[in-house]
Amino acid sequence: MGAIEDIYADLDTDVSEEEFREAVEEKVAEMEGLVDEETAAQLLAHELADSEVETVADIEPAMDEVKFIAKVCAIGALRTFERDDGEGNVINVEAADETGSVRLAFWDERAEAIDAGELSEGDVLRVKGRPKEGYNGLEVSVDETEVDDDVHVEVPVDDDTIEGLTLGQSDVTLRGLVLATDSVRTFDRDDGSTGRVANLTLGDETGRVRVTLWDERADRAEELSAGTAVEVVDGYVRERDGDLELHVGDHGAVDEIDDTVEYNPDATSIADVEIGQTVDIAGVVRSTDPKRTFDRDDGSEGQVRNVRLQDDTDDIRVAL
Which residue in 16, 57, 70, 288 could disulfide with 95, CB within 3.0 to 4.6 Å? Predict the structure, then answer.
């Protein structure tokens, strides 16, 4: 075997040997003869190894290019927009595997082909594209794709609960009980514009999650009160400090509903509480301090009262 054959034999890739040889020749020409075929083959082998990912969960926005397999879960509508050089088209496709979901963006001719029925829900795709952090979470701009009828991809059924949330999910619909709300905060974006953000906490029978509301949706945090049952529509899941968060942007909504949502937290033993945790605790109030008034850094006035809570493992001061 020659050097190129040896390098190709060591690769774990779906690229055929003929395609690999063509790419080697293109790489030599691209580098204007500064490398020979063997060096070009080694460079391509590194590029292929870096771009192949085992699962959707392995895709990161910082990657230049990725190749992966996923099943089509939903196909969006064709959208038309204006470019500087004319009109463009895009279709977003939700795809997933057993580890998570990702939004695929198909542009122009590819988008038109999907709109004409070239792709169906349930199809398994081999995808090559460029990942980025999109408006609704992880997104891959598709360069090449192929339907593979010989591969089976198992996608877990979404149980629409807080416990069922997974990193990278988008188009999330979730019902929960408002446990706490925050005020709206403003911040400056890199482009000079001003953004708005607020948070609320939702709970259901499986757990609790922090919800981040952006820009026009931020006002909902001040319009809702604890104890209200709501439904989040078109949310997307991100990670913050190791915990999952549900985000809601301009395409999403948080609507009040008449249904009853149960929230029955499991109490953490006081002895097991650690700094930085968000926990539920239960116990007997052993003492209370007088309410105190104080001035915040922003000039507003705050109030606080400390109580001492005890269970059968330890006691702890709780600041209200």
Answer: 70
Q: Mean pLDDT over residues 165-174, rounded?
A: 84
Token pair of 113, please?
């082909």
Does any domain span residue 164? Answer: no
In 3D space, the residue among 257, 156, 150, 130 whose CA is nearest the CA of residue 202 turns out to be 257
Tens of pLDDT along 28-61? 777 776 778 778 777 666 665 555 677 888 888 8
Number of domains into which the chain is organized: 4
List the domain range (segments joined by +) for residue 136: 56-147
CA distance 313 to 269: 6
Residues 6+ apart with CB under 8 A from 70: 56, 95, 96, 97, 102, 104, 124, 125, 127, 153
CATH number at residue 206: 2.40.50.140
Domain annotation covers residue 158? no
60 and 32 housed in the same domain: no
Supply angle C-alpha 98, 214, 101, rounded to 5: 10
Pair (132, 77) in one structural domain: yes
**What are phi and psi for residue 290, nearest 5 degrees?**
-65, 155
